[in-house]
Amino acid sequence: MDSAADNLDQQTTQKYRRALSAGVEELFQLLLDQDMGVLKVVLKNPFFGEDHLLTLLKRRDLSEELLSHIYRLKRPLLTHRLQLAIVKNPATPGPLIRSLLPHLRLFELLDLCILPGSTPDQKLAAERAILQRLATTPLGNKITLARRGTATIVGELLKEGHPQICEACLSSPHLKEAAVFQFLRGSTANGETISMIARHNRWKQRSNIRMAVLKNPRTPEIWLTLWLPQLNLPLLKQLQLTFKTLPTRKRLIDRELKKRGAV
Length: 263
Prior knowledge:
67% of the residues lie in helices and 0% in strands. The chain contains 18 helices and no strands.
């Protein structure tokens, strides 16, 4: 038993010595070692450089402890691409990810949200970081986010009510009906953006969205003229109550009810 243990210790010692003395090319081979202890020693090799660390960080089987050790040891030397590589590694601890996210660019954060391979924690943290930046994000970048972003990001952008952003949001495959409904009930929807929804092939056929459009006092009257004849009687009477304080709207509904002999 003691002899076997001694042999194991000697093998480990030899591996560590090799890890410390290996040259530039040999280091790339050592980065494949399954022993996290060997990898820790490799980090101290004088020939260990940025390319070695990038290669190491692409491994999907690193431990949280090793990734935290890498950050503590190399923190002063971390370039932008190294910071990004640490964030992208699926084993990177949440607190470390959150500390690095402010250093990433907007669309690097977006890639974390939408590309395969990111963990749920990485996606959620990146999404939150994007939401925190929206107030200072230029219009062009917001439009791109509206086209490519997650459901949460697109829903938040829609709330802003900017026509160009709304147009991009409405065509996003990630936009949820609940977000459109919420927007129609909010204060930022206006005649122009409401009409965008009413014209949109994806949204205009949805009964909940149609009713939200019809109930909004800022909806252009053309949509009442076009859609009231398609409503059943109970919904018409519901709208009549909704618009009892808006004479022009109520008059359009009363006219439709009269056509049906329901007044």
